[in-house]
Design goal:
binds zinc ion; 9 helices; 6-stranded mixed β-sheet; single chain; globular
Length: 257
Amino acid sequence: MLNIHPVHAFKDNYIWVVHNQNYAVAIDPGITAPVIEYLQLNKLQLCAILITHHHNDHTGGIAGLIQRFDIPVYGPNNELITAITNPVQQNDIVNLPDISLNLTVLDTPGHTRGHIAYYGPDPWDMLFCGDTLFSCGCGRIFEGSAAQLYQSLQKISQLPDATLIYCAHEYTLGNIAFAKAVDPENKKLNEFAITAQESHHKNMPTIPTTLALEKAINPFLRCEHQSIINSAQNYSKQQLQNPVDVFAVLREWKNKF
Ligand SMILES: [Zn+2]
């Protein structure tokens, strides 16, 4: 039986630990201690580390973990992360036999130049997407272009609707506030706002989310909808010709929101 557990780190990071009864894989360990604590508590042996991009809040814990475990570190081929032993890129398969899991790599540039995500269809559709897609939002554009991040999100949106999205931050409530400003008449969004607020009060993660839900509520996945186009045009006071332009305006707007 596979378990996917969010180890909380820093203010709002999730380090996803995927494990069976004996072995575990850590995704984006920004810090060592809470991962070790979870492994010890559950008597787990770490068998691999997966990295989505080079930011320190996703990589800062690698050194401490590989001191204790002699294990492969998978990560983006196009970024300089010295601890990576197995650089991977689009369509590479990451075999994790100890937890009977195979993940396929997707190149998802935009937040950073070489950002990647890991997708597995079995035992259920799951995506570990780092800082590319968040619930009701998306990552900031630090190194790539709006067109790149838009294309990366389009690539993700081609996955099965039931895909569980394991992103690396709990940004949901802030993202909802912005989404409501962009898409105030969206009934599903307003319903989700209530559910997310309840989770927050119970101290429960709002993650994982599903691709189906995100397609219904996330303005960054809805740049072709008339209501979103209208809002982006009102905000930017210009005619927007295509979804990438709408996306770029939304991302700018969110930065200032
Ligand atoms: Zn980042």
